[in-house]
Amino acid sequence: MNASAVTIDAIVLFAYFAGIVGIGLYAGRKNSDLSDFALGGRNIPWWAVLASIIAAETSAATFLGTPAEGFKTRGYIYGQLVIGTILARVVIAFTFIEPYYRYRVQSIYEFLTVRFGERTKNMASGIFLITRVLGIGVRLYLGGVIMVVIWRFFFPGAAITLQTYFWGILAITVITTLYTAIGGIKAVVWTDLIQAVLMIGSVIFAIVLLLGRVGGVGAVETALGGWDKVEWFKTGWNTALPFGAAFRGMLSDPYTIFAAFIGSTFLTMATHGTDQDMVQRMLTAPDYKKSRFSLILSGLADIPIVVCFLSVGILLWVYYTQNGIPQIGGKNIPDNEMFAHFIVNDMPVGLRGLIIAGVFATMMGSTSAALNALATSFTKDFYLPYINPTATDRQAIRSARIATSVFGILMIIVATVAAHLVIQDPHLTIIPIALGVMGYTYGALLGVFLIGMFTRTRGHDSMNILAMILGMIAVLVLCKVELPAFGKDPKSVQISETALAERVEIISQEQAALGKVLAPEAISKIADTELRSEGSKWRFGGFLPRWWPTIAWSWYVLVGASVTFLFGVLFRTPASQVRAAEDHIAAQAANTTEYKMEH
Length: 599
Known about the structure:
Number of strands: 4
Strand content: under 5%
Distance between the termini: 62 Å
Largest sheet: 2 strands, antiparallel
Strand order of the largest sheet: 1-2
Low-confidence stretches: none
Radius of gyration: 25 Å
Structural class: mainly alpha
Number of helices: 23
Helix content: over 70%
Shape: globular
């Protein structure tokens, strides 16, 4: 180990962290009220808003998780989901953004208060608070991943425990919470700009370096068996199977062209239209037109970004095919750690420190935005209306800062649990988990917002609660969701001979339909593994018939939103609430006109 090389990398990392924290604190030095803390006075340039959106959605799950998808599939099929993200942004830009500006909201769930009433707002905001803590917490686990890889670099052969992950998670969360709590949304946006530039530069450099290491584009083509072997699009429809079986297979695959055009569109409408985290940065722009422009451009930017990250994964597969996949204790390292292992062990000195900073940048960008959004939502939706209605500006900001710290602690707990799950199953990739968490609840959020946006007189404050609950239950049951049962070891699961025989018969039929023949011992082993895995999980929808498909996470939001909308739209909004909403819009329009005249 070269001590000087490690010192150079450490200096680069230290300079990065010091710079980010300093910029974050400086940017938020003039926060005088909650509007400054949450929206930056609505005077952030559109190009900074654009960079902030990119930084927020390009989390550590993207930086390390997307290369893991490319490594595992050796294709670009995950990237086709970008189609839906672009379509959804266009819908959001011309449907959601203007009403948010017209209603002059700081927390977007205030829109639901005006449109329906307090109950709907409280339910929606509560769903956001819980879901965002879980979703970002899962992503923060990757802070532990880079720490684990660094630990192995310094101490080869040392045992990796949950504690190793914990220190990486703790360090990144504490630093991010510090500058977010003090600096507010201004700190988030301006540090996001730096982090987005560093992230994009890091991945481009990684591609160039990997191409040089593997012998160029020609060597990549040879290793993959030709470019025709690389999948860009995938229908998920198996023509060798009967219609019913093929349809079930298509719904069970998260990366299909149908999921890209339909499922991904609804997923992005939820994450970018009804999530305080994303929408809050859009509301920092001076007006809805600039906000709309930033949002659509961020969707177009997703195309080259996701292609680059998947390319890194494919190149890593080629590189490690040539040089041998790294192993720990005789087993291949987890897929999620492949890119991190390459960064720490194979990057040039100095640049290694910079790209490790790039990994931390993606984590800090998404985490800071989530912390600020969570604090804003809690303060506007719960603290000011119920805990301290007469709070001064100083008290409101103090509440937001305390809430930021509390949510940071909760995220550390969730990230540690996610690390525990990955330790149990090393081949568990993080993107399906991170997006799946949102899928369980965000369909309900989207459904009630769609009622509010597309109708004027439908949707009732009390019945919306039931509609959202039904939407979340529908996702768990209709999609046959399986969740890990903590503390339940698959090896301890008891399997009956009848269940094993039935599963063997099903697998045999599936293999025969595909024209494959497996030895009875192999089929029996597959059946045993599947049953033990299923037995160690909480399974919803088990009472549904066997022919009902297990629907992939990319469809969750569509299922939840459909059920919530179809039930909620059956009920009429009281006439008094409709008049109150119209009066609110008129009052906000008058205030905006007066403000423009005064300034």
